[in-house]
């Protein structure tokens, strides 16, 4: 795919696309056309009325640069969000593929939301992410390359915006492509290999801590959860050191359980196949680190990914076990399916101890309770710092990756106290499951500003997931765009 910028509508293309507001009688930037074509366009505008997602294709006679004009409805201006153009662009891509077209040109609207730059970002992200299909294991591949030209009124600074947006969109696609891999093709060792590849390409420091060293150094949570599988656990560490030498980094931590059977506390068989997505938190961190390094952001960022396979076996950890975490605290195991918090606890403690970060952000498909509470379109967050939460919320509104903060008071911390250890790995019954899981994590760090993302509902498309053209079935890459925006704003 090539993304180019042109100032006027003159490029030869199979499909020239313009956006239309609801009940509008014009298409911004379309230029002067002959009387007959103008009449047909006006009739199409009256028919489609600019309704959100409504598309109208108009064939053109010979001798014109474009073979077809496509009108794409954006709905009412008052109802538009910073996601509208992204979603409608995805629908344009789908229509172009339906017609088996190779070249499309999209006119970037100048000021429907804020400015033309925002429109360009959404067009590129919607274009790239909607093209992605997970067909690696299909005999017949989805092979329909599409060339995109973006037409803008002013090209100042747009080329840099294009380059930045492409890097971020490619990072989301990269995240999806790894998260969609089946468990027989993606073990902890596979994730470590992916980390090595992107670190070498982008000149990041990479350190992989393996089974024996994990046990020797006291990573009790990662060791316990991973010991039931023949696929050994890994702790993956990536460092982007492009800020000042003594500047404290932002530490990102991502849960990567490459497959979660529940261990001895075995999950029901129904939908267990979806537990290949239990690695999505770690994949998100990989995607963010890829984008940060390619953007050459002038900051220090560390990505830490504890990766295990949670399997039942003769060496599996058991309900009733008491393990010692990296922090030195002990945890009573009441349910081996509450494993994510154990490996995250080790990684969080390690990140705080070794990097003294200015902030820690973690991502995990941690609890089904989060889906019960917030559904499948909003991620739950828990934080110990209002300032950090405010900045994350600002980025969420820009990228339209929705989040909702849940409380974490002492009452919730008390719910994970154990009679025989420092804490237990589940709360009291089914009450506040998402928050008590976060409370367990909170026990693993000191006063470092911290925010926890529970992405169990949003990491992949599920039954109640809102349909978005740029999110084909499977992993969504949730969080990559949001956190990259946050890091850019630093």
What key attributes describe this structure?
490 residues, alpha/beta, Leucine Aminopeptidase, subunit E, domain 1, Aminopeptidase, 2 domains, nine-stranded mixed sheet, six-stranded mixed sheet, 14 helices, 35% helix, 19% strand, elongated
* Beta strand %: 15-25%
Average of per-residue pLDDT values: 94
Whole-angstrom Rg: 24 Å
Shape: elongated
What proportion of the residues is helical, as a percent range?
A: 25-40%
Oligomer: single chain
How would you concisely characterize the structure shown here?
This protein has 490 residues and is of the alpha/beta class.
Please explain how this structure is put together.
The chain has 490 residues and is of the alpha/beta class. It folds into 2 domains: 3-152, 3-Layer(aba) Sandwich (Leucine Aminopeptidase, subunit E, domain 1), CATH 3.40.220; 170-489, Aminopeptidase (3-Layer(aba) Sandwich). It is built from 14 helices and 18 strands. Strands 7, 8, 9, 10, 11, 14, 15, 16 and 18 form a 9-stranded mixed beta sheet that branches. A 6-stranded mixed beta sheet has the order 1-6-5-2-4-3, sandwiched between helices. Strand 10, helix 8 and strand 11 form a beta-alpha-beta unit. The two termini are 30 Å apart.
């Amino acid at each position: 795919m090539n993304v180019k910028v042109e100032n006027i509508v003159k490029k030869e293309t199979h499909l020239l696309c313009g956006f239309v507001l609801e009940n509008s009688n014009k298409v911004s930037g379309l230029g002067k056309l002959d009387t007959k074509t103008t009449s047909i366009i006006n009739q199409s505008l009256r028919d489609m009325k600019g309704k959100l997602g409504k598309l109208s294709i108009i064939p053109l006679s010979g001798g014109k640069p474009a073979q077809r004009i496509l009108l794409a409805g954006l709905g009412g201006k008052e109802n538009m969000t910073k996601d509208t153009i992204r979603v409608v662009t995805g629908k344009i891509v789908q229509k172009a593929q339906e017609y088996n077209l190779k070249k499309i040109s999209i006119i970037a609207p100048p000021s429907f939301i804020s400015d033309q730059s925002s429109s360009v970002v959404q067009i590129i992200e919607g274009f790239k992410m909607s093209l992605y299909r997970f067909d690696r294991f299909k005999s017949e591949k989805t092979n329909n390359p599409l060339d995109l030209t973006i037409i803008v009124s002013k090209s100042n600074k747009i080329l840099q915006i294009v380059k930045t947006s492409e890097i971020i969109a490619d990072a989301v696609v990269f995240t999806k492509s790894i998260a969609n891999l089946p468990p027989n093709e993606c073990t902890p060792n596979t994730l470590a290999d992916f980390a090595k590849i992107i670190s070498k390409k982008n000149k990041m420091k990479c350190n992989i801590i393996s089974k024996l060293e994990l046990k020797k150094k006291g990573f009790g949570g990662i060791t316990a959860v991973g010991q039931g599988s023949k696929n050994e656990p890994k702790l993956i560490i990536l460092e982007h050191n492009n800020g000042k030498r003594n500047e404290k980094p932002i530490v990102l931590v991502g849960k990567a359980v490459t497959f979660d059977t529940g261990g001895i506390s075995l999950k029901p068989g129904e939908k267990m196949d979806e537990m290949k997505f239990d690695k999505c938190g770690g994949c998100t961190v990989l995607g963010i680190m890829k984008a940060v390094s390619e953007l050459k952001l002038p900051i220090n960022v560390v990505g830490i990914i504890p990766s295990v396979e949670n399997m039942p076996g003769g060496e599996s950890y058991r309900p009733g076990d008491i393990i010692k975490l990296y922090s030195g605290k002990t945890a009573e195991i009441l349910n081996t399916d509450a494993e994510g918090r154990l490996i995250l606890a080790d990684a969080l403690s390690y990140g705080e101890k070794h990097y003294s970060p200015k902030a820690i952000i973690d991502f995990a498909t941690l609890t089904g309770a989060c889906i019960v509470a917030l559904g499948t379109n909003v991620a739950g967050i828990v934080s110990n710092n209002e300032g950090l939460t405010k900045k994350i919320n600002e980025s969420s509104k820009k990228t339209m990756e929705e989040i909702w903060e849940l409380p974490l008071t002492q009452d919730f911390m008390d719910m994970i106290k154990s009679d025989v250890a420092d804490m237990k790995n589940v709360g009291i019954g089914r009450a506040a499951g998402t928050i008590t899981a976060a409370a367990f994590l909170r026990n693993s760090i000191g006063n470092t500003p911290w925010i926890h993302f529970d992405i169990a509902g949003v990491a992949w498309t599920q039954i109640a997931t809102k349909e978005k053209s740029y999110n084909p079935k499977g992993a969504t890459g949730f969080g990559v765009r949001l956190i990259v925006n946050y890091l850019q704003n630093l």
